[in-house]
Amino acid sequence: MPVWLWIPAGLGALVLTLPFAALLIRLDWAAVPAAVSSPEALQALGLSLSTAALATAVCVLLGVPLALVIARSTGPLAAVLRTLTTLPLVLPPLVGGIALLSLLGRNGLFGGALGVLGIRIPFTTAAVVIAQVFVALPFLVISVEGALRAVGTGHESVAASLGARPLTVFRRVTLPLAAPGLVAGAVLCFARAMGEFGATALFAGNAPGVTRTMPLAIYTAFNGAGVREDTAIALSLLLIVVAVAVLLLMRGWRADAVR
Amino acid sequence: MSAIRPLAAVVLTIGLFAATGCTASAPAEPTATASDELSGELTIFAAASLSQAFDELAADFERLHPDLDVRPISYDGSSVLATQLIEGAQADVFASADEKNLAKVADAGLADAGEPFATNVLQIAVAPGNPKGIETLADLAHPGLTVFVCAAEVPCGSAARTLLDTAGVALTPASEEQNVTAVLSKVRSGEADAGLVYATDVRAAGDAVTGVDIEGADAATNVYPIVELAGAQNPDAAQAFVAFVQSDAGRKVLERLGFGAP
């Protein structure tokens, strides 16, 4: 590697880390314990953790089959499915929020019918989970699909030729082989759900205790409504710590898998 | 003979219910005790500029009605709250910082016109002691000043637009925020040299900012209406809270925080 590449590489690393360093410097450390243990902060953290966990579970249930279908499809179908899966990844989450409202909102495609049945989804905790699933599902699908493609279908064919039924092959061969991708995908999915803001803000709103997750609590605190800016910075720190922990956990797990 | 009396009573009772159109579940309690029976939860959506006032009012209201639980109030720009309500957010009471955003909710069939309960005017919020020497709206257009205002859709933004247009000031704000507290927090943190916010916000911020009066601010006085929402889960409590905000006790809290009479 040419030695001079260290310069842009170093600058790149600075671009990514300096803002967080500045945040830590600005932080009033003495006030952190009070800020992150305030009832509002704990409520937001609890809501974020529980909704993100639920969203991850839904993503695993829906994402693994979808990943399998994409991995085993060929030609245009695979391309179309993969493109659709990637869409929420590249679009601003705000677009996802508007799309979800168009579907389930009061005047949405299904919203009206659900309303007649007395079911209201937008601006509830369920809406938070749905928004998180919408933005986090691609991470799981892409991760699992990559793992499935990498291991190929050889083992499955052998198992099937030995008389294993499709369900047995799926349970005993496909899933264990895709496990590293599944765990990595689930962890990423959880981290993304924890950080979800845009779609949640539009589709779920910002009601304390109901839909105010950590990102919305940070936004609210920063804008000064109710809480203070220091709280926003302290809450940001808390979210960064959780994200780093989650990512480290995944790295550790991957290292184990390689070994 | 004795068997006829209960039968007569039943017939009489049925006849009475049929005549009054009453159902067995409708209690005939006197209204005087109704206010003491408020229970359940009350969900309030209120303009960001009301946050301090409504936190106090909600606490007072809860003290009056121990069985009632006022949920943490959702504060944001009135237009954000109006959009959420129109899109299906569930609330019992909506307090807007202007009549325009309440009208949007009313037009969607979710409330009636509401009743005005307070007024507010704009001030220029600057750093403590006014280091940049900002005295008039025209000073805000000075190049090199970073000025924040509310977006035009939000009441404080539409009032700001009216005042700036009237004064003939062409201002290019550094950012247009979705609620008034967002503008105030930019001034507090020093990111903005000046911001157009309500006089009540400046007052609530204490020593953190200084307020500069705007000549002719009355021309863009915001009238705050409050309304019980049509889909209220707790209509009794909603009605009682709306009345409480307009009562002498409610007015006293609002006056102390700098809000004008409607």
UniProtKB/TrEMBL annotation, chain A:
Keywords: Cell membrane, Membrane, Molybdenum, Sulfate transport, Transmembrane, Transmembrane helix, Transport
InterPro entries: MetI-like, MetI-like_sf, ModB_ABC, NifC_ABC_porter, Sulph_transpt2
GO molecular function: ABC-type sulfate transporter activity; molybdate ion transmembrane transporter activity
CC terms in the record's Gene Ontology section: plasma membrane
Entry superkingdom: Bacteria
Key word Transmembrane present: yes
SUPFAM superfamilies: MetI-like
Recorded coiled-coil stretches: none
Entry-linked CDD domains: TM_PBP2
Subcellular location: Cell membrane; Membrane
Domain ABC transmembrane type-1: residue ranges: 45-250
Bilayer-spanning residue ranges: 45-71, 83-105, 117-142, 173-193, 232-250
Membrane topology: Multi-pass membrane protein
Function: Part of the ABC transporter complex CysAWTP (TC 3.A.1.6.1) involved in sulfate/thiosulfate import. Probably responsible for the translocation of the substrate across the membrane.
Assembly with partners or alone: The complex is composed of two ATP-binding proteins (CysA), two transmembrane proteins (CysT and CysW) and a solute-binding protein (CysP).
Family label: Belongs to the binding-protein-dependent transport system permease family. CysTW subfamily.
Protein name, UniProt field: Molybdenum transport system permease
Species this protein is from: Microbacterium natoriense
Lineage: Bacteria, Bacillati, Actinomycetota, Actinomycetes, Micrococcales
UniProtKB/TrEMBL annotation, chain B:
Superkingdom of this protein's organism: Bacteria
Residues annotated as signal peptide: 1-18
Keyword Signal included in the entry's annotation: yes
Record Gene3D superfamilies: Periplasmic binding protein-like II (3.40.190.10)
Residues that coordinate or bind molybdate: 49, 78, 180, 198
Pfam families: SBP_bac_11 (PF13531)
Keyword flag Repeat: no
Xref: SUPFAM superfamilies: Periplasmic binding protein-like II (SSF53850)
Gene Ontology molecular function terms on file: metal ion binding; molybdate ion binding
Keyword vocabulary terms for this entry: Metal-binding, Molybdenum, Signal
GO terms (BP aspect): molybdate ion transport
InterPro entries: ModA, ModA/WtpA
PANTHER family hit by this protein: MOLYBDATE-BINDING PERIPLASMIC PROTEIN, SULFATE-BINDING PROTEIN
Family: Belongs to the bacterial solute-binding protein ModA family.
Protein name as annotated: Molybdate transport system substrate-binding protein
